[in-house]
Amino acid sequence: MADYGENVLPKHAIYKGPSSAAAVYIGLLVVSKLFRAVGLFLAYDVLKLVPVVLFMFVVKAGASVPLVLLQKPFTSGKKLSKNQWFRVSRHAFVGCLLGVLWMFGLSLCGPLRTILLYEHSDVIVIAWAGALFSGNSGSPAKMRGAVVFLIAVVTLLLFDHDEKLEQRSEQDSDHLHRNVLTHIFYHIINLVGWSDHKGGVVLLFLTLCLQVGYNSASKKLSVDVGGAKRLHALSTLIQAMILGPWAIIFSSGSEIQVSWLYLLFPLALFTLFVLIIDYYIEAVAANHIQPTKTAELGAYAMFGSALFLALTWNHPYTARITTMHKLQGIITEDHVLSWGVIFSLASFMLATKILTNPGGKTNRASFIGFSMEGQPVYSFTEEALKRTSQSILIHLKNALRQVLEDSDSRKIFYFLCINLAFTFVEMIYGVLTNSLGLISDGFHMLFDCSALVMGLYASVMSRWKATRVFSYGFDRVEVLSGFINGLFLMVIAIFVFSESLHRLTEPPEIDTNRLLAVSVGGLLVNMVGIFAFKGSHGHSHGGGHSHSGGGHSHSGHGHNTNMEGVFLHVLADTLSSVGVIISSLLIEHFGWNIADPICSLFIATMIFLSIIPLLKETSAILLLRTPGDIESCVNSAIQKILNLEGVTSYRDHHVWYHTSSKVLATLHLHVAHDASEQKIISQVGSIMKDAGIHSVTVQVEKEEYLQHLSGLGSTFDPNVFQHSHFELPHVIKAV
Amino acid sequence: MSACSTIPDLISSSVNLDLDKSGNYHDDSTCNSASQTMFPFVGAKKSVLQSFAHELSSILRLNETKKILIFLCLNMFGTGLLFVWCHDTNSMALTAYTYLTLFDIFSLLTCLLSIWVRLQRPSPAYSFGYERFEVLATFATTMLCQLGALFVIKESIERVIQQPEIHTGRLLIGVMFAFMLHMFLTYSVDNKALNHVIAASSSSWLQEHTTDISESLCHWIPGLSKLLLPRINPLALIAFCGGFTLTISHVLIDSKSYYTSDTVAAVSIAFMTIGTMFPMAVYTGKILLQTTPAHMLGQLDKVLREASTLDGVLEFREEHFWTLSFGSLAGSVQVRVRRDANEQLVLAHVYNRLANVVSTLTIQIFKDDWTRASSYSIMGGGSVFPSNYTYSGPPIVPARGPSPTQDLGFISPTGSPSKQVPLSGQGHGHSHGGQGHGHSHGGHGHSHGGHKSHW
User: Which biological processes are named by the entry's GO terms (chain B) (predicted)?
Assistant: First the structure.
């Protein structure tokens, strides 16, 4: 550590303290943290005998004496105004509430877990929250650290089997109900159904977050009052005063089994170690080493000593040293070390390391290297994160307005709402009646809604303005969304198919109870969808295509692939509801369990067959296929163009659907040297427009152009010229 | 690049209109079936199957194809075996992991497709060539993989409610087998399309974190940087991560009978799969959406800026440049030129500039008021072409653009001087000789607009 300091900081820096001094402070910090851990272990033992509030009162009162003596808050500094006094007492009130919660958590979880959960410095917690919630607060390392931190907490919550404790709490849980706070706590815990040690974990974690918020909120106050230490001294004194009456009330109710003499020593030690020495040394260390470094080292020291103490605390020698052997008879079973705790400790250490690491060089949108084709490759994160953040409310309002602007997206949105409402009713009913089938069906519906959400998004997105990157506009998104929806349905069909094949071999017993009602409800919802989308998804059900006539009749093709995808999805859902109704009727009345897989097979095939046209159409559009249905018109148009005055031949003609209704074209024309380019372009434009093409780009070339090109040839591939020179007039005008 | 894709175009478009007609029958049939939503497979099925068999036999002659087919059989067998084991063990995580080998099947099929594509020439139906098939196939592959992962997540949620028992008997063997199969196929098959997408798409979150970790690792052991930096193949990475997750869950189930770990592992593998596939799907999806690739924007800007300094060029409009297939751009642009500019010369110059970047290019030269310009004899070849249009407007408004005579001496950057333009009478604009150079686009455009309205 000392080396590190020396390397980074030159000797003549303003930053004071050579490496040896830093080492001294680090040593002090480590020792004070060890003492703090000892204090907390002591406190845990004491708390088994003394009520929390009484304990807090005693230690706060004990701490306030030396603090007041050292800081002299009343004599030094300027006098506080009334308002400041009010704020200080508010600060003290919140502080003592948090303190009581902390000690209560300690009594529930044991010292080791309390230290793991609670002894994080503000720096770390703020870095954690920043990485997790603001999203763009730095490198992926921070995010990773945040996730590791979260994993550690979750491990402590879920994977830490503190079996002995659970037994104990069951045995004497009624004896522990001692005051209002515990009453409320146990009530909530019972409602959720956790053991109190898990409740303690949650409580401590919340207290930690509150404590960090409290600390940062009190920064301004401490400046006003004249220093953090003065505030601390005053606040501690007021806390003791606040806690006093409560302590008397609570202690009158329960009598303490041992004499005060035995307890006095551990209480004094706790006051000294946790509330005074640690406070001062941390403040000093933060001044002399960087705050993040202090936080990191402090956390390591704390966790390390907690582990060490947890391993040795119940050893008879330790007990003798801490004079606890006199209380040994009363203190019962203790918390045990589990692998979950060890893992969590390691994760906390790792998270501390990552989160305190100065992740200065955030390489977002950094240049990574070249791909095989020599294209530069960039890492992502740039564009997505550069958008300015907006208020969520305004964002939602804008989005809703956009959605409701257009009839298509409006339809999808309303149907989505109906669907979601049905799903939630179903799930709530499932939870209330404790039916797994209903809940899982609800999840299934929710899953289906994702296709609707995608359709909605695509439908909104397709109306966005064209940008530099999306130079044709976003309307192609609808085609892509239709394609993805098609793939989605295909996957669903395949899954249903394989599942029903599986069931065909070993048909399971099906509980038709309530199935009928649910599927009828689903059918009704989906029928609404079908009637809503039937109009918009277009004319494909109608009397086929009438495009052979050419001319202007191409608008009939203009149905929306996105809406078609959504429609097919709804159709598939309807089919499956119908299938479920039929099969459940058959099972109920005839007992044919085999009906269910057969129905599913049938449904899967239907879904699969219905999706193929959509997939074909969308993939043809995405592949820039020449539109088949207007090909004859295009051909006749090209014939017309060839008949124009001056046009000799054409090449490179590309015609493609941009969306399912918009056709674009590009064309190269070779013309006689005396023709007028602009005239030809305008004539071609109008001919193509008649043929149903929305936009055409024409490159008009003359012999002169080829001469120019070959003159420029140095940078250009000569092959192209040769070819274009000799093979250019492919389609000789039929004169 | 440009030459490669232009030549086939030229050759193939010599296929004349008759051939177009013969292709028409097939197209119509698919299109009809495409528009009937419920009952497809009317006429197209047979021809599709037949043509498929025909195409398959055409590529079967290649050695490469045989190798891929053998791998495909191996993979299908392995995947089938894995699915049987998944069913035996009842493990969701293994199923999620097996989807990776399913992905490999699709990637092998993509490989076959790209071999087929290489043999194809652009046809009337697919005038841009068949390279886009690879893009679509890769997109579909990555999307299917993500959808499969989505299904895994859904099933896992159902399992959270009711956790079944997992049998660990075949679990570890299954994991090792799937890992070996996937790694073998990832590294033994040279799937050009997929490799391009992996190289060109942005990093997945998994890769980003790995890069970040390995960067700090390489501080300690510099030798590793060759292996770990700049970024690891995402498919290998997900194989490692998924295998690791599964092994942990196996240990947990074995030692503690902690069955939920299987579901947790399944969800995390599914998330990793989605994370890995998402950037690839975005990359290919953007190609399918006809967008300008972001990394080409700078280059295109530079070229266009250069081209806009050419003599006579006023502005570019309707610039559409988009990725046709992996590594080739197509585009069209309209160039607005001065009325007296030589269109063919400008066209040749602009084409020459852009053709280095954009392989399939169409440039439309655009003139304001060309009907009037035609009454002048301004053609570069010196020939005055007969025109039906005569100028009959009012006398020219004074607010015209820069004088044409000013530009006579203007040498275009390529060194070829602009042609001498004999002006016939009218003398408009001569009075504004003091306006300096001729490239003030904005001002020029506006004055034209004003003139039009007046006219």
Answer: zinc ion transport
Number of H helices, E strands in chain A: 29, 5
**Which chain A residues are Cβ-neighbours of B132 within 8 angstroms?**
622-624
What would the pLDDT profile of A235-293 be if each residue is shown by its tens digit?
888 888 888 888 777 766 555 555 666 777 778 888 888 888 888 888 888 888 777 88
Inter-chain CB proximity B35 and A613 less than 8 Å: yes
Which residue in B has a C-alpha nearest to residue A672's C-alpha? B385
Which value, to the nearest 10 degrees, does the dihedral of the CA atoms of residues A118, A121, A126, A129 take? -30
Q: Find the residue in A nearest to B378 (Cα).
A: A676
Look at the alpha carbons of A24, A25, A30, A36 in this order and tell me if their dihedral is positive or negative. positive
Burial (CB < 10 A; 0-12, 13-18, 19+), residue B343, is buried
Answer yes or no: do B37 and A470 touch at CB < 8 A: no
**Mind listing the pLDDT tens digit for each residue in A115-147?**
888 888 888 888 888 777 765 555 677 788 888
Q: Kindly report the average pLDDT of chain A as a whole number.
A: 75
Crossing angle between the packed helical segments B343-355 and B294-308, to the nearest 10 degrees:
150
Assess B390–A contact: CB distance below 8 Å, yes or no.
Answer: no
Please report which confidence band the pLDDT of residue B105 belongs to, taking 50, 70 and 90 as the band edges: very high
Residue with tokens 């909605």: A456
- The mean-pLDDT minimum among A101-110, A120-129, B16-25 falls in B16-25
- Select from A491, A702, A727 the Cβ nearest to the Cβ of B147: A491
**Chain A residues close to B333, C-beta within 8 Å:** 697
Task: Mention every residue, 6+ apart, whose C-beta is less than 8 A from residue A585.
Answer: A516
Query: CB pairs below 8 Å between A and B: how many?
Result: 296
Interface of B with A in 269-288 (CB under 8 A): 279, 285-286, 288
User: What is the reported pLDDT for B369?
Assistant: 67
Which residues of chain A have a CB within 8 Å of the CB of B5?
Answer: none
Distance from CA of A44 to the nearest CA of B (A): 31
Phi and psi angles of residue B398, each rounded to the nearest 5 degrees, phi first = -65, -30
CA distance A619 to A444: 28
In terms of Cα–Cα distance, which of A609, A625, A608 is closest to A617? A625
Is residue B390 a contact partner of residue B374, using CB atoms and an 8 Å limit?
no
Q: Identify the CA nearest to A498 among candidates A623, A566, A578, A597.
A: A597
pTM of the model: 0.72
* B-chain residue closest to A610, CA distance: B38
ipTM: 0.72
Which DSSP helix (H) or strand (E) runs through A700? strand A695-701
Q: Rounded CA gap, B419 and B407, in Å? A: 10
B255 lies within 8 A of chain A by CB? no
**Residue A733 near residue A642 (C-beta atoms within 8 A):** yes
User: Sign of torsion, CA A126 A129 A133 A139?
Assistant: positive
Q: Which of A427, A482, A423, A479 has its CA nearest to residue A451?
A: A482
What mean pLDDT do residues A676-693 have?
Answer: 83
Residues 101-160 of B with CB under 8 A from A: 124-128, 132-133, 136, 140, 143-144, 147-148, 150-151, 154, 157-158
Q: Are B37 and A564 inside 8 Å of each other by CB?
A: yes
Please indicate whether, in this complex, the C-beta atoms of A613 and B320 are within 8 angstroms of each other. no
Report how far residue B19's alpha carbon sits from residue B17's, in angstroms, rounded to the nearest whole number: 5
CB A112 within 8 A of CB A200: no
Q: Which residues pair with B366 in a beta bridge?
A: B336
Residue of chain A minimizing CA distance to B201: A377
Q: Tell me the two tokens of residue A171.
A: 């045995």
Query: Higher-confidence residue: A536 or A71?
Result: A71
- Residue A592 CB contacts under 8 Å (≥ 6 apart), including other chains: A586
CA distance A298 to A115: 12
pLDDT for B364 equals: 87
